Amino acid sequence: MDAFLLIVFMIGLIVLVPIYHQPLMRVLLRRPIRRLGLTLRNAIVEIHDCQPSTRPDRSEEWEFLSNSDEEISELDRNAAEEDRSDQAESDQRRRWFLLELTISPNKPPDEAFEEWLPCELALVPRDSEYNEGDPLPSVCEVAEVSLWREETWKIDDFSEFRGPQKLQLLIGTEPEERSLTFQYFYERFGQVELPT
């Protein structure tokens, strides 16, 4: 719950702090974001399986475009159609994998939150440079996060958890990517070697 409230607070700061105070906003947001990431500092990743998969079915995401009941301006409809076309092209180009793993937080520092959000996991090239605040490289998309619950996989609903979690990730990578690492806010940990 603490992590969720912090995210709501940060969104409020983004909305309330005027744009001309961007340096102040970066200072105000960096510390809470760093605290969120500390939860998975040096986390232990155990890969159970990594198999080729099919790209995700995104038809529900774009359903509103074909629904005549939705009131969408022509400009918005055209922009959404362009986004859908770009997404389809990206999905077609990527290699897709179903990754099963367990992430176990390693004793985080005292100032870290106890809960973590699996939906905030990202995968980035293992050897890529990163400075706090930089945008993440877009070489890997985590399209779907599922949690092992009651002997079956259930889609994550943006829940917070404590301790180890068994996950299933549907990921799409650029064709040349072979070695990735996890990123959770500003923290990097673990390693994923993709099959060729």
Task: Note down, in words, how this protein is organized.
This protein is an alpha+beta fold. It has three helices and ten strands. The protein has two domains: about 1-55 and about 95-195, no CATH class; about 55-90. The chain has helices at about 1-15, 20-40, 75-95; strands at about 45-50, 95-105, 115, 120-125, 140-150, 150-155, 160, 165-175, 180-185, 185-195. A five-stranded antiparallel beta sheet has the order 1-2-8-5-6. β5 and β6 (about 150-155) form a beta hairpin. The radius of gyration is 18 Å and the shape is globular. The model has no long low-confidence stretch (mean pLDDT about 80).
- 3D shape: globular
Succession of helices and strands? HHEHEEEEEEEEE
**Low-confidence residue ranges:** none
What gap, in angstroms, lies between the N and C termini?
Answer: 40 Å
Number of domains: 2
Radius of gyration over all CA atoms, rounded: 18 Å
Strand order of the biggest β-sheet: 1-2-8-5-6
Mean pLDDT: 80
Percent of residues in beta strands: 25-35%
What's a quick, concise take on this entry?
With about 200 residues, this protein is an alpha+beta fold. It has three helices and ten strands.
